[in-house]
Amino acid sequence: MDRNQLPKTMKVGVVIVTHQSESTIDPVVEALQKQTVAAAEIFIIDSGSSNTAYVKKFNRKGVIELCLMPNIGFSAANNLGFASLGKEIDCVLFLNPDLILPIDFLEKAISWLNNHPKVGALTPKLLGFDFKTNEPTGLIDSAGIKGSWYGRWYDRGQGKKTHEYDREEYVDALCGACMFCRKEALLSVEISPGQVFDENFFCYKEDIDLSLRLEKKGWKLMFVPSLIAYHGRGWKGRKNTSHLLRLMSAENELKLHLKQKNPIKIFYSWLKVWGVKVFDL
What we know:
Blueprint: E1 12-18, H1 25-33, E2 41-47, H2 53-56, E3 64-69, H3 74-84, E4 91-95, E5 99-100, H4 105-114, E6 119-130, E7 135-142, E8 145-147, E9 153-155, E10 169-170, E11 178-182, H5 183-188, H6 206-216, E12 220-231, H7 243-260, H8 263-279
Parallel strand pairs: 1-2, 1-4, 2-3, 6-12
Antiparallel strand pairs: 4-11, 5-12, 6-7, 6-11, 8-9, 10-12
Helix pairs in contact: 7-8
C-alpha cells in the first residue's frame, strides 16, 4: 500500500499478552470494550499463568479470542497474537495487561495515524497508575524511550509531573506497554511470516529492538502527548526486581547492541551484565 493512500476507516487489532495478570486485567478489558471506536479484533495470549481461570472468562466475549500457552515469552506470545489477526486489520495495538485506555483512545489514535502517513508507530503519554488504590499516581510513567550515546536506554520523563513532556516529537524507541502500529510498517520488518518481535528477546528490550528495525526501514516513531494511557508498571525498580529478571534485561540489552555492532554500547552492556552476575547490581 502506498503510504499516501491510507484507508479512511482503519480497523484495529489488539494483542494483549498475560502472565499472572489476574489483579489487573479486568479494567484493561473493560476499557477496551467501552471504546468510542471499537477494536475489530482483540487477542489475549496467556503465556504460562499458573491459574488460567481469570483469562478463560474472556473467551468468545464480544470480539475477544483467547489462546492459552505455556510460558513462551513476551515476544513469542505477541507474535502469535499478531499472526492471528485478520487480513483486514490496518493497525495493531500491542497492549500490556496493566494498561488502561481512556474511552476515546482508539478513535484519537486512528485519526492521528491516518493523518501522518510517514509514522509507522506511536506511543502515547503513559501516566502511572496504582491498581491497589485504583487511582493515577500523578506522575509520568513514560514519554517514549531514549537511548544515550553510550548505550543506556530509559523511559523519558519517568517520575515527572503529568503536565511535562507536552510536545509531539520523534523518539528513539517506543514503550512496549502501549505501541500503536501501522500494520504495513510491521509487515515491512517481519523476521519471518507473523514474527515481528525477535523471539531471542524472551522479555525486556524487545520493544526497543522492534523500534530500531522500524526506523531502519524508514518509518518514523512518534510520541503523541495528546494521547494518554494509564500504566501500572510491573517493573518496580532494580531493588524490587529479582536477580533473574535483572540479568535477563542486561543480557537482552547486550544482544541489542551486538545487533547494532556498536563497540561502545557493547562494552557498556557487557559491563552491566558482568555487574549483575558478579555483584548482583
